Amino acid sequence: MYVILAVSWAIFSGPTGYISLAPAAFFGVGIYTSATLGNDLPLPIVIIIGALISACLALLVGALTLRLRGIYFAIFTFGLVELIKHLLLWYEVKFTGTRGRFVVLVDNETIYYIMLIIFVVLLITAFIIRRSKYGLALQSIGEYEEAAAHMGINVTLLKVVTFAISALFMGAAGAIMATRWTYVDPYIAFYALFSFMPVLMAILGGMGQFYGPIMGAVLIAYLEELLLTKFPYYYMLIFGIILVVAILFLPQGLAGLIQKLRWRISGGKRAHT
Amino acid sequence: MHILEGEGVTKYFGGLSAVSEVDFYVDQGEVVGLIGPNGAGKTTLFNLISAALVPKPGTIKFKGINITGMKPHKICRMGIARTFQTVKIFANMPVSDNVRIGSLFGTYQKMSPAEAVKETTELLEFVGLSKVSGVPAKDLTLANQKRLEVARALATRPELLLLDELMAGLNQTEVSESMELVKKIRDKGTTIIMIEHVMKAIMNVCDRIIVLHHGKKIAEGTPQEIVTSKTVIEVYLGEQTYAGS
To answer: Residue A29 belongs to what domain range?
Structure first.
């Protein structure tokens, strides 16, 4: 699940450098779609709807906010998570009289296979985007947005569409994950950590390379389980230290480290002019 | 035919007019120099032409079409390309990718990826950067970064090229190389407007010069007319009486 979040986050934020803290919002929208429609509609359709609603939300939010740069964008997207959470909470209490909802159960095997399908589709999409000319354009936006616009790239459109694609997968992941939890309320669905984790994973793994976020996500998810079982009291502390060290000493992430090693091995010839 | 025409082009920053009521035209195939003291509004005028800013009021026409208020990427695809005073290359990307982006996105007619690669190779050859095509752009010297910006702008197949201080910060040899490059681009049939402080270059290359001061156009003419113009000398050197005494 985290792998999906991290990779889809990196589709947009990796090359462009826009740090989005909205994954929890899109993930949560997926969860709630599943919670509200899960009883009435077949699962694949619920997932598709969850994904589409997330993407639509991203289109809307993206069109409004992608002119913000740097920290402002990060803060806004984080605010979005809180906004939706409280809006939903207010709605639930006011109109349905409950706080949480029960989600229709699905057996673990189905969840696993659906996750796998989403993951594979995501990987293919991410790969295609990266290799296409749009991947190049996204990178140029990250380098120098103004120059990119003057090179004939429709920066606004490209950013909003890519943002929506990344939200699409987060929504889908949310819709299927909801079925595992049986009970959700806004605090669970829009948990802020869902926003931070993908970012940390992608950074730890390294955003420069395609496999970076995957590596980061696998490693952190594993580390989390390991620390949680072995050192339940110090788990967060150790976790934090590892992250700080990683960011200080591996600014390019693990993928960057691997690249460097490769340079060393191949002799790293590099012409300076 | 006028390829570019501006009428009453004005831009205010707060209460300050950076460019005020400038009328100008550029003919097909010309090299026009844009000079003036620092803060005269030269770069602002470039920003207005390339749509980084929108003139208010005023209109700009390109090949007879009103382009005022269009988005920068549209302007670029219509055939106006530019370089920047402070180089704005895609620093961490290889030199060739910098140029390839121009070919892929900036051209009027869509180009296939293979064509774009071919065009990139040719352009790097043209500006003399073939040897370093794989190097990250940030590792180039300033002179070469400026060449790269030119190549990237040319990749969009412009009819009009805006060069913003192409020669600033370059040494003598590099300046003369840049002048050769400008002449080569002109010979390909591209119209050029250039902002420049290096007078030798302006006098050598330009067919016509426009002088801005405090956002206003104060003189216009051939290089010969400009160097003998009294107002221009006053602006640059102070009034003649002081200079003489």
So the answer is: 2-203
* CB of A41 closer than 8 Å to CB of A155: no
Residue ranges of domains in chain B, CATH in brackets = 1-70+161-245 (3.40.50.300), 92-157 (no CATH)
Closest CB from B76, B91, B100 relative to A152: B76
Token pair belonging to B200: 């030798």
Task: Test B90 with A147 for CB contact under 8 angstroms.
Answer: yes
Kindly state whether residue A20 falls inside one of the protein's structural domains.
yes
* d(C-alpha B95, C-alpha B50), whole Å: 23
Name the amino acid, one letter, at A30. Answer: G
- What's phi and psi for B84, nearest 5 deg? -115, 150
CA B84 from centroid of its chain's CA atoms: 8
ipTM of the complex: 0.80
Tell me the pLDDT tens digit for each residue of A5-39: 888 888 888 888 888 888 999 999 999 888 888 87
With contacts defined as CB-CB under 8 Å, which chain B residues touch A271?
131-132, 134-135
Q: How many CB pairs below 8 Å do chains A and B form together? A: 87
Q: Say if residues A83 and A64 touch (Cβ distance below 8 Å).
A: no
d(CA B102, CA A70): 25
Among A128, A150, A252, A259, which would you mutate to test the B interface (most chain B Cβ atoms within 10 Å of its Cβ)? Answer: A150
**DSSP secondary-structure letter at A151?**
T
A147 with B156: Cβ contact below 8 A: no
Angstrom CA distances, B10 to B20, B25, B55, B214, B221, stand at: 4, 15, 5, 12, 21
**Domain-embedded: residue A253:** no
Query: Is B142's Cβ below 8 Å from some Cβ in A?
Result: no
Task: Report pLDDT digits (tens) over B206-234.
Answer: 999 999 988 889 889 898 888 888 888 88
User: Are A243 and A200 spatial neighbours (Cβ–Cβ below 8 Å)?
Assistant: yes
Cβ distance of B144 and A151 shorter than 8 Å: no
* pLDDT tens sequence across A125-165: 999 998 888 888 888 888 888 888 888 898 889 999 999 99
For chain A, what is the domain count?
1
